[in-house]
Structure formats: C-alpha cells, structure tokens
Amino acid sequence: MTASSPSNGLGNGAATRPILVVDDDPAMRFALAESLRQSGHSVMVASCAEEALAQCRDQTVGLMMTDVRMPGMNGMDLFQEAKRLKPSLPIILMSAFGTIEIAVEAMKSGAFDYLVKPFSQEALEAVVRKALSAQELPAVKATVKPAEISPGRALLTQDPGMLKLLKTAEVVAASQTSILIAGESGTGKELLARFIHEHSPRAHRPFIAINCAAVPETLLESELFGYEKGAFTGAAARKPGRFELAHTGTLLLDEVSEMHLSLQAKLLRVLQEREVDLLGGKGPISLDLRVIATTNRPLWEEVKAGRFREDLYYRLNVFPLRLPPLRHRVVDIPMLADHFIKKGSAKNQKSILSISPEALSIVMGREWRGNVREFENVMERAVLLADRGMITSDHLLFEESFESKRERPSPRATTVWEAERDLILETLDRVGGNRTHAARLLGISIRTLRNKLREYRTAGVADLSRSSEMMETNRTQKMRPPHPAEQIREKPYDQGLV
Known about the structure:
Helices cover 47% and strands 12% of the residues. It is built from 22 helices and 16 strands.
C-alpha cells in the first residue's frame, strides 16, 4: 500500500522512498499511515516484523517506524535485523510503554529516534522530516549546535562520541530521572546539565545551581535548605534554600563529591522524601524538581574510601553520563578555536579573524589537562597578543610558560619597588620586548611603562637591550618572506615561551 505526493517539501531522493509503518495494532497502524499520507508521504504498512523484513528485502524504503512490543519478533529484534539488511536505513522506534532504559538502549544501538505513544501530529511530522532530511544529505558531516543555553554559552561539537552523548542526554531529559554527570574539570559539566534542562519538560522552569565546593561547609546547609526568620541569631528574614527555589524546575549540585558527610545524610532524606525542612520551620515543604549532580572525582572510589555515602551515590547515580576530556575529542578543536577567537575578539574589541595552520597544529597536539576551560583561556590570551588579524604560534601562552618563569633562579625581591620592577621586566621578556602588549597585560598605560623603564635605566638596575633586540628581531622576521625551511622548523615559542 503506497501513496505519493511531492508536498512534503523534500528532494526527489527522500520523497520517492516510502515510509514503512510496522505495528500489530490495526487501528494504530491505520491512523499512523493516514496521518503520514495527509502530510504528503508515501507509506507502506506491515502488521508484523517478518512482513516488514520481507518488504525491506524486496523494495526500497526511506524510513522505518516500528512498534517495540509486538508478538513473535519484537521491535528491537526487527530493528537489529533491518540494520543488518540496510545499515543506512533510519529507524524510529515507538512504544506506549516507554522507559528510559529502552530508549537509551535503542539510541545507543543506532536508532534514529524514539517516540512514546501517544504523540502529537506535530511531533510525528518533526521527527519524520528530520529522518528523511538526514537521508537526503548523507555527505554532510553531523555538527551539533544546540540552542543557546544562556547568552554566550553553547555546546559545540562534531565529535561522534560527543554527538552520541548529547543524543542520549536529550532522550533522558524527557524523564524525571536523577542524573550524575562525571568528567574532568573544565569539560563542560554545567553546560551539559543546562542542555538537559533546556531539552526537558521543565525548560521554562527555574534552573538553580550551587557549587558544593565553593560554599563553606558552615553556610552550605542554609544555602541548600533555607531558614525561617529568627531561626538563629542574625536571621532577620526568611531565606528560601536552593531546593525551594528550584521547585518545579531543575537543581544542579555541582561538585557534589565535596559535600561533607553530615550534609549528605540530610540531602539523602530530601531526595527520598521530596520535601525539605527549613531551619526553624514549622513543617516540611513538598518539592517537585529534577536533581542533576556533577563530580570531577570517581565517585565510587570516594564511596569505598568512606568519604561519600553509598546510599546517596545510588540515589544520584540513577543515570550516569560521562563527558570526555578535550584530548579525546581533538576533532572539535578547530571549531572551538574559531568560536573562542570570535568571542575574545568581541569581548576585547579586536579584529582577529583566524588561527594559523602552525598554531592550530600546536593546540591540537596538546593534552589540555584543564580541558575546554584552559583552551578558552589560551585563545583569549592569544587574541590579546595578536595584532595582524591572525593568531600565530608566537601568541600562544600556555600554563607552563608561567611555571618555567617562576622556576628560574632569580634574586629575591625584598621591596615593593623591586617586585614591581621584576614583574615589568619579566612581562616585557615574555612578549618579546613589545611594550604595547606588555602594558596591556600589566594593566597600565604605555606612557607609565615608558616612565618605569626610564626609571630603571637611570637606576642602573635593568638591561633592556635584550628586550629591544628581541622586538627588533621579531619585526625583521615578520617583514621578510619566510624561507621554505623555516616554515617547518620548530620555533622556540612552540614550547610555550613568548
């Protein structure tokens, strides 16, 4: 059974390939097929998995939509067999008994999407168009640029592993399940938490975050649970806690592994009972919220070491997500570099347009122990130092640059005047004698810097010839065309020294 119409707005390839609807329920099968035909799609139907596989072998199919629960071969088994027959065929699974476990298993296995019955006509059409469009453009490299999570903050990736993680997060977002996000510092755990919130039914409700490591232990309890007026000396007014503020929305417990054991017991009770007692309050307040926790430590190791409650671990770790470090998603570095260059240029009113191939090669070869946060800092420094529209290897300042300077033996400054002198001369040395860059880094005017240098020269305590020579050498090297051998020669600045 087929029906065709060009009105679905897709190109010839996708428009002429029918959608195969598989469902053992005749009423559901008919309703779904008619709905798709009214939207202009060609439709084929099958009442069981075996019939669907036969049609896949005999005919060209553009998309399969199958129920999960069917007698005989179920939808998951059909999905596996159909993928073996036609690996590129997009398959959408449907079920009236949707669970997070089934949805995630399907997405991890390669299902295009998962719909929970009943679903609206709009939701059906949106996912069908998305699937057929993906078939129409197979050569386009997948790039996820989710909607801005907040002004200036977005998750950018084209790494296959990261794309898969975001797809899983999007599926889990539709539930009320507690989520534990693990990952090294600087990988974007809070951004992922906001992504989940923005893709959840609570998207228009509050998103409240608290960093458990940043708030002193003595204040964390009142910050989390709140207090009534007069609960203790100095409580002049009622203060709602983060739990109460996040009611109907999402609460992010950032770096939850840093929470003291005594507070972990109170947190466990709130998560179990879904109610909170304010300090000095007369009774509990009921809560309706989603809890997301993050950690940069292996939380199970903290449990074994006795620093984290095992029962709380299981309460938070209902669905775990782990963010990969930047060194495991090197393919994202060019995209992130471009993003941070544009962001830094706008912030500092500069006109830096790109990064040189040599500099890009350097940043793609680093381990980035501080991950995306460290990478963003390096790009902003480079934007500040660059002055010719392009970031080169000379503009890359890494953390070890500062460490190596500090480790150099030098006379110990004993006065404020000496400390100031050492800082100015060291900064000049670091930027190759460029006084404009040095003044910007030091936060002083170029005139003040000139006066300071004149003062040091008069006092006979500074030899500025080396900085001047370095600045002149850099200027000369930039003016003459590079010799071919120099284009592949390792520069001294590649080791992080400027």
